[in-house]
Amino acid sequence: MEIIQQYIIPVAMGVSLSACCGFRVFVPLLIGGLAAKAGYLPLSSGFEWLGSWPAIICFAAASVAEIASYYIPVVDNILDTITTPSAVVAGTVLSASVFTEFDPTTKWILAAIAGGGAAGMIQAGTGLLRLGSTKLTAGVGNHAVSTAENAFSVGGSILALLLPVIMFVVIVVAVIVVIYYLLFRRRKAKA
């Protein structure tokens, strides 16, 4: 039981929160910061700043700006390109912040691979979805895509805190679907 509390729950929570950075970069940071401020999310040493009021205010302002920007035609596609590296970095930092029981080397390697990787894969999937929507609907359907991404970012971040193992399984399935789609698309393009 101790292994579950010390390692499995934090990894599931960290990776799930990080994956939500692939939908919106700042929303999971905001929700994580609020959870830390409320004492619900334990943070690793050196990451206490995540639950500070200045960080929460910055994450809130950035979240509002990011969400609003995705409803502006053309800007949404540009943001998908810009936010991919940001999502990976945010996912890595967010994962590392909740890996409280790991030594620093393991923490950062796991955070970069699992957290940053999950955020990057989800971001790649949403970017492809938006490109498809832009092609099929001339951008008209992008508002629906943005709304769904916002819902997944907020809802997924909350679920990552409340039901981390279940959310982790959902994220793993989503990442597998994105990888399959990317590989299938590459094979189809070569044929």
Describe the protein's architecture and organization.
It is built from seven helices and no strands. It is mainly α and 191 residues long. Helix 1 packs parallel to helix 5 and helix 4 packs antiparallel against helix 5. The N and C termini lie far apart (51 Å). The model has no long low-confidence stretch (mean pLDDT 91).
List low-confidence stretches.
none
- Helix coverage percent: over 70%
Radius of gyration: 17 Å
Overall pLDDT level: 91
Instruction: Encode the helix/strand succession as letters.
Output: HHHHHHH
Largest sheet: none
SS-based class: mainly alpha
The N- and C-terminal alpha carbons lie at a distance of 51 Å
Percent in strands: under 5%
Count of DSSP strands? 0
How many separate structural domains?
Answer: 1
Number of helices: 7
Q: What form results from the Cα inertia axes?
A: globular
In a nutshell, what does this entry contain?
By secondary structure, this protein is mainly α.
Keywords:
191 residues; mainly alpha; globular
Give the topology, please.
Elements (H helix, E strand, L loop, with lengths): L1 H19 L5 H12 L15 H17 L5 H24 L5 H34 L4 H21 L1 H27 L1
Helix pairs in contact: 1-4, 1-5, 1-6, 1-7, 2-3, 2-6, 4-5, 5-6, 5-7, 6-7
